[in-house]
Amino acid sequence: MLTGKVEKNQFLADDIFEMEIKYSNLSAKPGQFINVVCDGKLLPRPISVCQSKKESFVLVYKVVGEGTKWLSKRIKGSEIRFSPPLGRGFNLDIKNKKIAILGGGMGIAPILSVAQALDKADVFLGYNNDEFLHDKFPNKIYKSFASEGETVIDRFVNSKVGKSYDYVIACGPEGMLKALQQVCKEKNIPGQISIEQHMACGVGACLVCNCQTKHGYKLVCSDGPVFPIEEVVFND
Fold first, then answer.
1. Contact at 8 Å (CB) between 169 and 114?
2. What is the model's pLDDT at position 164?
3. Which end of the chain is more exposed for a tag (fewer CB within 10 A), N or C?
4. Residue 3 among known ligand-binding residues
5. Which CATH architecture has domain 99-196?
6. What's the whole-model pTM score?
7. Residue 68 annotated in ligand binding
8. How far is the C-alpha of 169 from the C-alpha of 9, rounded, in Å?
């Protein structure tokens, strides 16, 4: 395990926090995650790396249990233990494509570094109520709010620009990704999606985080979390 120190840990919205950890050259690729030790009595929590900087990196997480509650109480200077970057991230070697990047809920955090690398892409962000991280995207942004009856997929499909994309990158809840997969199938649009899944070990040993694909079952932690959108098989 690696060790860093909390630089900041601030509330964003809806039990969502942003933590910056001082640690040099983590070198996480967009879409990768780390296992964070939350109190020695609990299993490490997998959290996507939102941004990887030269002297620090940023995590965005939601308080949903004892582990993330403990994490939310850390103050500046607190030590945090974590794994090196894990999983397969996004392939950003995408040329001559008009790209749409979609993030829903906590799936907004993993796509920030993707959007910053592909700053000519358009970004669609789906929120429940309060927005967060939107001011960090350098891209053209289209926002939707479930509380107002519109999903990020609605915004993507119904927008005037929605018909012009030929590649998508997305992260979000399963229902969102399943709906996007259907849209992409109808329009013959390829892309990549990052799957959200419960994990235990994070390195492919415990076999908990399996995901059905057209090529058999894969492990989200080691084969993913990023997969080609056309390969994932979602249950009805």
1. yes
2. 83
3. C
4. no
5. 3-Layer(aba) Sandwich (3.40)
6. 0.93
7. yes
8. 28
